Amino acid sequence: MAPPRPSQRDIEAAKKAERQKEMDNAIASGRLVVRQMTPEERAQSDARPTKSAPSGGSRARRGKR
Fold first, then answer.
1. Which tens digits make up the pLDDT trace of 1-32?
2. Dihedral angle over CA of 14, 19, 21, 26, nearest 10
């Protein structure tokens, strides 16, 4: 009987582990530099929206029926 096929979750976990290993090697060899963002860069970044407005829009919530 053939061994069962790995699940998509297992395949993705293996790919992620391989990418992480490659990234760690690049950091160790100096090909990749990881640094913290400065406060000015963080203020200019639009990577994450601020939490000033609710994401649900302006609709009023209804109670349970």
1. 778 899 999 999 999 999 999 999 999 999 99
2. 170
